[in-house]
Amino acid sequence: MTKSTEPRLENKAAAGPVAGNVTAMFADFMSAFEEFKAANDTRLGELEKRGSADTLLEDKLDRLNAFLDGQKAAIDKASLDRARPALEGGRVRAGDEYKDAFSAYVKRGEEKALSVGSNADGGYLVPAETETEISRLLTAISPMRAICGVRQVSSSVYKRPITVTGPQVGWVGETAARNQTNSQVLDELVFPTTELYAMPAATQNFLDDAAVDVGQWIAQEVNAAFAEQETAAFILGDGTNKPTGFLDADIVAEENWAWEKLGYLATGVDGGFPDGSDPVDASDVLIDLVYALKSGYRQNATWLMNRRTQGAIRKLKDADGNYLWQPAAAPNGRASLMGFPLVEAEDMPDIDVDTTPIAFGDFRRGYLIVDRQGVNVLRDPYSAKPYVLFYTTKRVGGGIADFDAIKLLKFAED
User: DSSP of 136-182, one letter per residue?
Assistant: First the structure.
């Protein structure tokens, strides 16, 4: 690789969102992807001729893969920072008495104007702007919230009836007798909400600073902590004091699928794709997974996997020599796999024996996230002096809403 063609493998995650920065990072990303394709084409040619590829070439592909992942993360962060609005801006907004009172409560513990927001356990609901900001940031940085169905409820449990089987029907002659048919079968899905909390701390001097945007500060402090915990629970949660993740469900081979189970297809190889020397064979199992999903779900389907699995997928081609993985067309877009959007979630398992690292489905119909209205903040100036703690809580639930809307790829013989 010559110096003139080698991309600058330096991720700009720390760069500020100055004008043109995202565009420049995206240009570097696309340049690196072209270099990745050229290197992988060379690797595939060596595999076809000699049955093995040069170690230095494999190392180069690994570096390019890491750069692509890091650059995409940097682009997402810069786009989010540039789009984030200021809430309070350090100045009083006329007519917003509750918001001003909330700021006074956070900074100095004044409570006289906050009775409308109090709850039985103490603490106060954050103003609507802050609550909306926390939810918006969670959507932006939580991959599951970005693709799943979300409901807001006012109680601690959300119940949803669903038709498992429809009424039996049949053809009949004009004068023939009509036998009684079976009625439809209903099931009830129950989504309890459980408490998610964060406890950011600040010094009193920091809170006394008139320029501090209190609502924005709370949102920034808790959104990353909430998003990390939520995403792990929505994927892997066991339902004990947390949502039930979709990978916690019983899984069965697709031909044995039944309600309350998720169907999977096997790659036919323990811990890998079929015949690793032929990427076309490897891509066939992905095609089979796409068409294991019914057409009504497939039109809104999304791939879900972690970045290491995505790195392996980037090397695959179809029978015509086209790469199955394609980068986003714009800095704030999503990569695609076989024409369907691909979303990264680091809590998805890695490729290994008997794991299910790839999910494909209509997650908006397949998985439901339930938010209880309100985010509560309890100010504690005593437990960790000289810091003031802010015990911030929200109630969240989640679970599979449609067991036929999500399919898994299992890296196993059967």
Answer: HHHHHH-HHHHHSEEEEESSSEEEEEEEEE--------TTS-----P
